[in-house]
Amino acid sequence: MKTILVEKTASKGLAMGKAFVVQRHNLKADTYRIKPEDADAEVAKYQNAVLDASTQLEELAKTSDIFAAHLEIVKDPALYDGVSSKIKSEYQNVQLALENTIEEFAAIFDSMEDEYMRERGADIKDVGVRLMRSLKGIIQDGFEGINDKVILVAEDLTPSDTSSMNLDYILGFVTELGGVTSHVSIIARNMELPALVGVKELMEKVKHGDYLILDASGGKIIINPDEETIHKYAVLKEEYQMRKKELEELSSLPATTLDGRTVKVYANVGNLEDVRKAAERGIEGIGLFRSEFLYMENTHFPTEEEQFEVYKQAATLCPKELIIRTLDIGGDKSLPYYTFEHEENPFLGWRAIRISLDLEDVFKSQLRAILRASAFGTVKIMYPMIISMEELSKANAILTECKNELSKEGIAYDPNIKVGIMVETPAALLCIENFAKHVDFFSIGTNDLTQYVLAVDRGNKKIAKLYDAFHPAVVQSIKRIIDAGHAQGIEVGMCGEFAGDENAAILLLGLGLDEFSMSIGATANIKNIIRNSSYQKAKEYANKAASVYTTQEVKDILSQYRV
Fold first, then answer.
1. Element (H, E) at 79
2. Annotated catalytic residue, options 25, 70, 183, 208
3. Which band of pLDDT confidence, cut at 50, 70 and 90, is reported for residue 141?
4. Has 318 been annotated as catalytic?
5. Which domains does the chain have, with CATH numbers?
6. Please, what is the angle between helix 446-454 and helix 472-487, to 10°?
7. Burial level of 317, CB count in 10 A (0-12/13-18/19+)?
8. Cα–Cα distance for residue pair 386/425, rounded to 1 Å
9. Is 495 part of the annotated catalytic residue set?
10. Catalytic one among 70, 318, 471, 495?
11. In Å, how far are 173, 187, 346, 389, 400 from 184, measured between CA atoms?
12. Could you report the per-residue pLDDT of 412-456, keeping only the tens digit for each?
């Protein structure tokens, strides 16, 4: 029995089960050249790989149009001719011939003007991966071997990883890399699954099939525990579930302090299922609808009609309001059907509103869909990653264009739909008083704001200790944003993970935050804290916390809060 202690919890809870360790395989081709007399044998290897891949895809194609398309590509004579030609005339080994042919074919599709044809380039690359795995004798990769309840253990997990796995089989997550604001952390909180991230030497210490106790509330992982320890944690798990249920039963009550201030406690969601789950819990509004998941979990840029149907249903389910963030892709979030150029600093690169303003047709499809949905409920639009008035003005000009088009077409929408921005960059912070005059609301994105204000990469485990939203610079930034918004009479919310941090609730309440938006599982606890707090007293402590000079002083002041 071994125990690993972990400093930061991504998502609280307890899980017990076998470890499924995700192994990343090297799929780069061998580069050696073959002898002419070996060419036929290499071609035979490719034929066997095609047969193997076809067998796999024929089963998958029965229920998936995507895999049906992949099956056609695998059997395409042009692909066969390309690979066999490189083997027979250039004496490339079969792996190198496949890799080069796939790159050539994908490049052709990527360069096409037609959007649908460009998307086929991603399908060709996926087929190349499947064939290469067969050539290298890799029976399974990633998550295909998950067919029972497991605790997922990995070096890191990308948004594409989590969108491709069957989350019904996941009891909890543990990763060696990543921070509490990473994508997998957000997914875990939304699903109310325990998760620990940034676990040092995890991949060396945990083996596939090890029995784990994942105590994400206590910050520890117990590997192959004895029977006594298993029994102890089974009891703790039951107690934890009981406490959680008690809080959830009170979650439909308003978040009103003991002295009468009511704030909004909303949910962050990524899909319709999340919206339904929030509604069942009595959560009346959505403070952040992450629209990028509609794009990431698709085979193409979703059409206006596809988006409209989702946004319409979401708006109908929300009694109060639905805030839809426009496409926030880039950084650590990619698309399976669109190739992003390599960037040295993707979090400072082509992402979020920058992509939307460049891909105007994609942006217009989304804005039209949101506007149409606004006829079915209270819908608001939120632009991410804004750094300038020029960006805001251009986005609003495109929005106005979409409104005019819909009016001419006789399609209903809310002409007075409210538009806000996420405040998550130093530029937006420094220009906040001006932005407050030109938007209807702010939502503070503390995940990126903390990263950019502190110049700390939130995914870098070497400096994970430096990433802390309780840093005085971040606290004072939050105060300035709230004060600027209130000075202009606009509402200020927060959709970053800090809003769901129970240790930050008094600080944010006291600073005057109007709307807290967080993972569904955190809402009951935050509501409970607010209902048992005094707003006036919270203001006193928050003002003290915003006037000190060290992170520890901020935490010490807040820890002393008593009603």
1. helix 77-90
2. 183
3. low
4. no
5. 2-24+143-245 (3.50.30.10), 36-136 (1.10.274.10), 250-559 (3.20.20.60)
6. 120
7. middle
8. 7
9. yes
10. 495
11. 8, 5, 18, 33, 36
12. 999 999 999 999 999 999 999 999 999 999 999 999 999 999 999
